[in-house]
Fold this sequence. Notes:
heterodimer, A: mainly alpha, two-stranded antiparallel ribbon, 25 helices, globular, disordered N terminus, B: alpha/beta, seven-stranded mixed sheet, 11 strands
Amino acid sequence: MRRLALVTALLTTIACTGTLDDGSAGATPGPTVPARMPLRALTPTELDGALRDLVDDDTSAVLRLQPTAVPTGIETLPIRELAWIGGRSDRLVDALYDVALRATERHPPLADCVARDSDTACAHDELERLATRAWRRAPDEEEMARLAAVVDAVPELSRRERIARAVQAVLLSPELLYLTSVGGPEGSGAEASLTSLELASRMSFFLWATIPDAALLEAAADDLSSPEAIERQARRMLADERAGRGVARFVAGWLGALDLNDQTRVDAAWSSSMVRDMARETEAFVIDWVQGEDRALDALFYADHTFVTPQLAALYGLRLPDDAPIDRLTRVEGTHAHGRHGVLTQASFLATHATEAAASSTRRGHWFVERALCQEIDGPPPTAGTLAPPFTAEMTTRQWHEGILATPGCSSCHARLEPPGFAFEAFDAVGRFRDDDRGQRVVTTTTLSSGTELDGFYDGAEDLSEAVSSSVTVRRCFARQLLHYAMGRPTVPADHRLLLDVARSLETDVREALVRIVTSSDFRAARAPSPEAP
Amino acid sequence: MSKVARRAFLIGAGGATLALPFLPSFSESSGYGVLSRIATGHAHADATAPKRIVFWFGPWGATPDAWSPRNVTDDGRSYDLGYVMEPLAEHRDRMTILEGINMASVYRQMGRAGNHTIGSANVLSAAGLREHVDGSGQRLHVPAGPTIDQVIARRLGSPTRFPFLALGDTTDHPDQFIQNEEGADPGMISWPRELYDQCFADFASDGESRERLSRSRRSVLDAVLPSYTHLSSRVSPDDRRVLDAHLDALRDLERRLGTSADCSAPPIPMHHSWDPAGDRNYWSDPRGPYEPLFDLAARALTCDLTRVMTIRFDGSRAQVRTVVERFDEIGATSSGAAHEFSHCSWNEPANLEVWKEVQRWRFEHMATFLRTLASTTDVDGRSVLDNTVVVHVSEVLTGLHDGMPLQEYGYSNPLDTSVPARPKGLPIFYVGGCGGALSTGRVHDLSSTHTYADGLGKYAHGELYLTLAHAMGVALDTFGMPEVCTRTIDEIRAEE
Lengths: 534, 496
């Protein structure tokens, strides 16, 4: 997204198709969906979650691998991370050894075993326990023999290093790193559905962003094929402290904010810790949304609270108690008074959709059109660079973008991009509130004409956020992308009923929407539906 | 070959290499078209040195009047370097500038149109563009065939620890520009620390502990590989490809553990950290990570850790204001990143001046990289640079998106009389003679005759790659889009 947005803003002209998508993706001639649901790699967040549960590793070791080589395209839903392991497998190998080495020191059962020098049985037992948990099945004898061979491979090394190598081998298994959709045995009548174990894994990674716990595995061993059994587990899981981690990752991807730490802003407030705090704010806010009392979709866009660290509070002009811990998030109420009301006024969103040095109504508007309204817009034509008016030192960002809007050859598309973007004009390139831009008062008034019920006059981000919070277009658009994320494939017309169902549930309670998704036959399917069939 | 036999082979090869870091794995006749053979003899002091190739991809084109050589004599041997090329003056005896080479593959597919996406897919592939839809329905634009670095690396076999290294700035467009023969993106290294960890961390410990480390790592792979094979047999053919690619990468790692090289460890790059254990506060350095990154890259070549390298250097991780010393004095009106400046037109003189300074700064980094190769003596007594060819390419002619001459916009627009200078082709030059296979020290203007379309010049850029492959001892028949890759560029072939 970042990359595309960059191009878009730089070239400042968009040749648009003007297609208005009705929410039934797949209606456009698109990819042939494979007969079987594709295998997918865990995302870095999911693998980090699994490592935390398996060996108490909370260092975000995998996320830190920073898969910059992953091409990011038009949709940066977390699902794009499917390909991230591709070129980086050797770095993953090393990172998992570091995790294993830490585990032999910090994860009590392993650390105890390392300390008991004469106890040879404990290594076997601990590796078996770990493998069972990581692979969601008991290892067979041959597999245990292979792990034992790793422990014995280099006797000159310390006991700790040798056990850590075997732990690394457990973590490197494709049964941890990938999610399969093999389904039941051919001809059994169950080949079109995920096995209970596959379903349990999908549920766990979707709802918790980590591996299943013992209770879920037990339910899977028993039978997890009836909607009632699935619903029981889903409700139990949504009441757990891990609930919402998957949705938080989804929302960050939906906002386009996953790449934030790759970016540079020419601003004294910009630092790696600030960027991390911005991402943490959105994550905490979304998890709280899923776990809290007010779980309707509108709360995402029109909340009166947020979670900030002292430096982020300073950026927002919020007051925190003097003794607020510097690296912790503190919940702050009454943020409306400071112009902050939900994700669209959080710095993670605002700073992502800006250029290195300036706020960009093109980028913010581009996000709005594609991600909030689910409307398609083409990239800029190659001539774009020669058309844009110069951005002079006296101009406000709004004046420059108005200039683009008035330029022949630019206006047809920018007439769709700029108006929603202008509503955010009171926020600078790092998401700080501003009254003036280059000495002139900022102008946040704008008129939307998107062909949706949102069309009309707005003054500022609060006004627009309030309208977004009750918009059925946005609700359906959000539901569609959430479904895409949950199922690991784009939605097709056959998903339409489920999509409406999920959108309706979102109106009142995101948890209900999540339950709808995991109990649906689409979520359980091991075969992808035909892209055309209604 | 059985696993044990393969292992023995690898260890054998590694042991031999350990004794003499520059052991040639290929014996080469001088000149062209000779298939390389795996050397079976012993290393001698007068041994043939290995050949190396570096593809230096400097995106966003070049400003024609600041890039092109001036006052060129008829024989092409006397000329003045263009302003932005001046930092490379110290290497001009080893340099050849090629004017008038264009992307006929783009012309075949798109006509006279071009932009970064089309150009990036073609810049190293010369094969055209294809749309790729991954398993989840995401659409990407990728090269229609493998890129030249990958093809050469594959054909060389794996004489070194890394069959290839790709590093530098990741693209600011969604599409990939490197692709292996399986159609996958092999991945790139962005940060000095990352490159250090991959290439040099091992050399920080003594030989014995390195050997122990290698054995224990290999035992892990021995335990893991069967589980990939097993799962692979249970999934659909599409999924199998994903797992097999992962398996191949692990096998390559295993192979790498069996090879060895002798290299002293450079200091750990602490600054500009891609730091797996710490904060990633790299943007705190406004000059970007380039100095340590290219220093390590040059060392990877002089240590013979790899013989094929691709560098993509756009400079986007440095702040324009910092690298252009006279920024405030110039009075630019544009606001931000280097890419933004590359798009400015000749009627924005201040912004254009900044963009020229950025281009010059990029070539300063290249000059430093080349200096390291030039100052290292190879096994045959020549410099490493003489046994290497470093070729500079770009995906467009200019920052105004000229994809080829006679295009109807930008610097190439024949209808615009205000254009100060027109580009003849891509900004292409190479430094180093590739072990005596390529001639150096002059300018070749190849723009006066046309082969594939008016204005496109005598050769297509795929034909340059074909020529370079031959110089490396890789006897390809054609490369990229075959209809626009029909012969080698004889003009740059060294005299026998």
